[in-house]
Amino acid sequence: MQQEILNLIKDALKNLNIEVSDIVIEHPEDLKNGDYSTNVALAIGKGVERNPKELAEKIVVEINRLNVDKNIEKVEVAGFGFINFYLSRSFFSKSVEEILNKGDEVGKNDILFGKRIMVEYTDPNPFKPFHIGHLMTNAIGESIARILEHSGATVARANYQGDIGLHVAKAIYGLLKDEKLQEKAGTHNTQAANIGKAYVLGADVYENDEQAKKEIDEINKKIYERSDDKINAIYDWGFKVTMEAFEDLYKMLGTKFEFYFLESEMADIGREIVEANKGKVFEESDGAIVFKAEKLDPKLHTRVFITSAGLPTYETKELGLTEEKFKTDPDMTLSIVITANEQMDYMRVVAKALSLIHPGYAKKMKHITHGMMRFVGGKMSSRKGNVVTGESLLNDTRADVLEKMVERDFSKEEREQIASDVGVSAIKYSILKQGIGGDIIYDFEKSISFEGDSGPYLQYSYARANSVLEKAQKENILPDFEVVPDEISEIEKLLYKFPEVVARSSIEYEPHYIANYLIEIARAYNSFYGNTVIVNKEDKYSAYKVALTYSFTFIMKTGLRLLGIKAPKKM
RNA sequence: GCCCUUGUAGUUCAAUGGAUAGAACGAAGCUCUUCUAAGGCUUUGAUGUAGGUUCGAUUCCUACCAAGGGCACCA
Questions:
Q1: Nearest nt by C1' to A464 Cα
Q2: Which of A92, A150, A251, A523 gives the lowest tally of CB atoms within 10 Å of its CB?
Q3: DSSP-derived pairing of the beta strands A36-38 and A82-87
Q4: CA–C1' nearest nucleotide, residue A524
Q5: Distance between CA A354 and CA A373 in Å, rounded?
C-alpha cells in the first residue's frame, strides 16, 4: 500500500513538472489525520514561489485525477500543507482477511533473504553467577535473532563463555577455603549457587589480602597448566555444574544455542594471529604486545593483546573467536555480537585491528551494545556480590504470578507452566519495551509489572481473545468479511501496520518498536472487547468481529514470539 | 583530562525534522444479570540550560550543566 501511494504522489508531481528526490510518507500520529500522510508540499514549497498549502491543493487535484485505486477513499490537504490519505473500508476488511490467511506467518518479510547471520549473546562465565545483566543480553539477543529470522535470514545463535581466567581461580580458591561449598548433594542449581558464593569470597580477598592474591594467582597458573589433580577435579565438576544450571535458564527463557565457543580454545588461535602480524599491526611496548589504535583513529586507544607475562588477553581471544566463527560458517554474511555498552570502546579497538588483518571479516562484523542493569545505588558487580541472579529473579517473579493467578480449570502442570511463561514475559517485556541503548534501573520493588504497560497485559489480552474465539466456535460463528460495519475500528487501523513495524525493528535492530506496537494494539483490542459483545448471534456484524479477533490473535502471538515471549491460550 | 552513551509528567518509558509531545505506574472517581476485572471508561501532569541551522527542532549542530560507562597487561 505504501508503494502505491508513493507512486501516486510521484506521478502527480511528474505531471506538474515538479522534481523531488525523496518523498517521505508516514502514518500520522493522530488517526483523524488519515492513514498515510506526506509532507512533500512543505518540503518543496520553499523552493517554489507558492505557499505550501496552495501547492498541496494542486497536488491533491492531480492525485485525485490519477487515482483509480479502490483502496484510497479520499485525499485531503490539512494543517499547513500536509497531504493526508484515507484508506477505504474495503482496504481494511481485505487486510483483515489477509492476516487470517497468513496466520502465524504474518509480518514476514524478505529483507534479509539468503543472508546467513550468527548472533552471539548472553555470554555468561562458568564459575560466576548468571546475573540479571546476562538476562538482559539474552532477552535482547533472542528477540533480535527471531526478528532477523522473520525477515528471512538464516540465524545461528552462539554463546561465548569465559571458561578460564582469574575469575575461575577466584572461585576455586573460595571452594578450597570453604569446603562446604563443594557439597554435591543438592541439584546442579544449588551447587552452582554455592560456586557463585565461592567466587564472591575469592574476589573479595583478592583485592584485600596479599597472601590470598598470591594463592589465587598460583591456582590460576595451575588451571592453565592442568598440573594439579585436586584443582582439576574441582574445575571439571564446577564447569559441568554451572553449565548445566545455565542450560536450565536457557530452556526457561526460550533460547537454544547452536554454537558454544569457549574462551580457552580461542587463546592459541588468537595468539597465532597476533604473532603473524607482529611488526605490521602489533608492536612491543614494555614487554607486552600491543595495538596502538590511536595512531589510526584519535578516538581509539592502545590495548594490550599479549601481556608481558606472555598471556593472551581478551582482545587476542576475540580475534581467535572471530576466526573460529568464520571457519564454522565460511558463507556467513554477518556476525553480530551483543554486549553491554561498557565493552564498546575496546571492541572498537579490536575491530580496528581486525580491519587491518582481515578486511573481509571486519566488514561483516557488527557489535550491538545495550545499556546496563543498574541498581538505584549504582553499578552491579558480581565481584562485590551485590547481584541479583537470573534464577532468583525468575523464581521470585514466578512466585508472584502464582499468587495473582485466578483459579481456573488448570491442571497443576498447566498452572506451573503458565506461571513460568507469565513470569518470563514480565521480565523480558520490561527489558524490551525500551530502546536497547538505555540503562535499566532495577528496583527490587517496582521493576516487574503485571499490569498496564507490561508483558502479562499482552498475554492477558491474547488469552481473552482466545476465549472469545472458543465461544464463537461453540456458537458456530465463523469469520466473515462480507458484512462489515461502516465505521473502521481502531484495531483495523493498527493491524495492517504490523509488517512495517517488524521491518523497522529488523533494520534498526530494535525490538522495542514491536513491543510498543503490541501495547497499542492490545489496548485497542481490550477497549473493543470492553465496549462490545463480540460473539452475538443477534448481531449481523458478529462474524466480522470474530474475524477481527482472529487476526488480532495471530498478530499478538507472532509479535510476542518475536520478543521471545510465549502466548498461553489461557491464564 | 580525553572518548562514548544518556538527559522528556512525581516515577519508568515512547515519539522515521512536522499537525494538540503519547503510554504506564502513582493519585481521584465510575464500571462485572457480556465472551477471563492481570480488563474498560473519566480526571491530573513533562522536552536539563544557553545559542545556532530550518517554513517548522524532543529529534540536527555548538557550548555548558548533570548521570552512567570506558581510557595498558582484568573480562
A1: B36
A2: A251
A3: antiparallel
A4: B40
A5: 30
Nucleic acid strand B: bases within 7 A of protein CB: 3-7, 11-16, 18-20, 23-26, 34-41, 54-56, 68-75
| pLDDT of the residue at A311 | 87
Q: What is the pLDDT of residue A165?
A: 85
CA of A302 to C1' of B44 (A): 54
Closest Cα to residue A348, out of A401, A288, A294?
A294
Is strand B less than 7 A from the beta carbon of A34? yes
Tell me which amino acid residue A407 is: E
Distance CA A116, CA A70 (A): 40
Q: How far apart are CA A56 and CA A168, in angstroms?
A: 68
Q: Report if CB A569 to strand B is under 7 Å.
A: yes
Match 576466526 to its residue by C-alpha cell: A323
| C-beta of residue A320 within 8 angstroms of C-beta of residue A275 | no
SS3 A210: helix
Output the CA torsion sign for A34, A36, A42, A45: negative
Interior angle at CA A528, CA A524 and CA A533, nearest 5? 165
> How many Å apart are A473 CA and B21 C1'?
43
**Residue lying closest to nucleotide B68, CA to C1':** A439
pLDDT tens-place string over residues A413-430? 999 999 999 999 999 999
pLDDT at residue A92 in the model: 96
The β-bridge partners of A373 are: A440
- Segment A244-271 shows an average pLDDT of 95
pLDDT at residue A24 in the model: 86
Question: Could you check: is the Cβ of residue A537 within 7 Å of any atom of nucleic acid strand B?
Answer: no
Cβ burial, residue A571 (10 Å; 0-12/13-18/19+) = buried
Residue A310 DSSP code? S
Q: Which of A59, A66, A14 lies closest to A41 in space, CA to CA?
A: A59
Q: Is the ipTM of this structure higher than 0.85?
A: yes
A24 CA to B17 C1' distance (Å): 11
Q: What is the rounded CA–CA span in Å between residue A361 and residue A328?
A: 13
CA of A509 to C1' of B74 (A): 30
Q: Are A427 and A139 in contact (CB under 8 A)?
A: yes
**What mean pLDDT comes out for the span A449-470?**
94
**Distance measured from the CA of protein residue A141 to the C1' of nucleotide B14, in angstroms:** 21
pTM score: 0.95
Rounded, the Å distance between the CA of A505 and C1' of B73 is 40
C-alpha cell at A40: 512533500
- How far is residue A534's CA from residue A92's CA, in Å, rounded to a whole number? 18
